[in-house]
């Protein structure tokens, strides 16, 4: 969620957006296509950012034992994928991904947790002359595996996962979102509940479109800020 202007250190933005509520925020960058031609590269970036935050957040007044992970859209997909792969010790860039520090909660905004039929998508993009999307889908998804968090959980046995590295996950969607329609998170929520032994989940439906909360926060919209902060406070009280 690129919405905070703050001090920059090692490619991370240390922001003041949540400071009035007693929280500190860290906004990491990660490689995107064409600078990344693998989802594994993006997962690796997020994995490193989380470890960096855990080791350094005390320098900015934060508490490493009370961290919330939040992300938007593709970031939500990548964040939960990172948690799943690290919790299960799945290979990423050829090596098992090490476990992450535990979060108090995770807040996922407007995420899509399954990328659909890749070959069909490439065909449609080609028909409309959207060649940048064609190349992106070919590089990131074609003949690749383990990039859909929902599918990874679907292959696991019931209550076979001890933890996903968080006590709670909230899935937020918006009423007028045409990119990720309301209800898209339902199958993901079902798989989390089915496979993970100890976790709670929540769902919040906000008024607006795909970018209402994310862009609203960036643009100083009070209602967007209120929804976001209240959801963090609810599951990560100071």
Automatic annotation (TrEMBL):
Q: Gene3D superfamilies in the record, alphabetically?
A: alpha/beta hydrolase (3.40.50.1820)
All copies of the BD-FAE-like domain together span 9-85
Q: Name one GO molecular function term.
A: hydrolase activity
What domain of life is recorded for the organism? Eukaryota
Reply yes or no: does the keyword Hydrolase apply: yes
Does the keyword Cytoplasm feature in the UniProt annotation? no
Q: Which UniProt keywords apply?
A: Hydrolase
Q: Sorted alphabetically, which InterPro entries does this protein's record hold?
A: AB_hydrolase_fold (IPR029058), BD-FAE-like_dom (IPR049492), GDXG_lipolytic_enzyme (IPR050300)
Record protein name field:
BD-FAE-like domain-containing protein
Identify the taxonomic lineage of the organism of origin: Eukaryota, Fungi, Fungi incertae sedis, Chytridiomycota, Chytridiomycota incertae sedis
């Amino acid at each position: 969620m690129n919405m905070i202007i703050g001090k920059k250190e090692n490619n991370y933005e240390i922001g003041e957006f949540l400071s009035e509520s007693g929280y500190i925020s860290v906004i990491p960058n990660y490689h995107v296509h064409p600078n990344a031609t693998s989802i594994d590269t993006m997962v690796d970036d997020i994995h490193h950012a989380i470890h960096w935050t855990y080791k350094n957040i005390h320098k900015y007044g934060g508490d490493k034992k009370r961290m919330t992970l939040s992300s938007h859209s593709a970031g939500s997909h990548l964040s939960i994928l990172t948690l799943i792969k690290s919790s299960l010790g799945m290979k990423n860039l050829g090596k098992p991904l090490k476990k992450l520090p535990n979060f108090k909660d995770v807040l996922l905004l407007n995420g899509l947790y399954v990328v659909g039929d890749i070959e069909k998508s490439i065909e449609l993009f080609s028909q409309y002359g959207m060649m940048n999307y064609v190349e992106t889908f070919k590089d990131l998804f074609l003949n690749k595996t383990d990039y859909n968090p929902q599918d990874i959980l679907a292959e696991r046995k019931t209550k076979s996962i001890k933890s996903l590295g968080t006590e709670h996950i909230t899935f937020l969607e918006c009423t007028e979102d045409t990119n990720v329609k309301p209800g898209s998170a339902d199958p993901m929520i079902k798989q989390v509940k089915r496979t993970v032994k100890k976790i709670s989940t929540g769902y919040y439906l906000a008024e607006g479109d795909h970018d209402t909360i994310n862009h609203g926060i960036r643009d100083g919209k009070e209602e967007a800020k209120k929804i976001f902060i209240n959801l963090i406070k609810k599951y990560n009280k100071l």
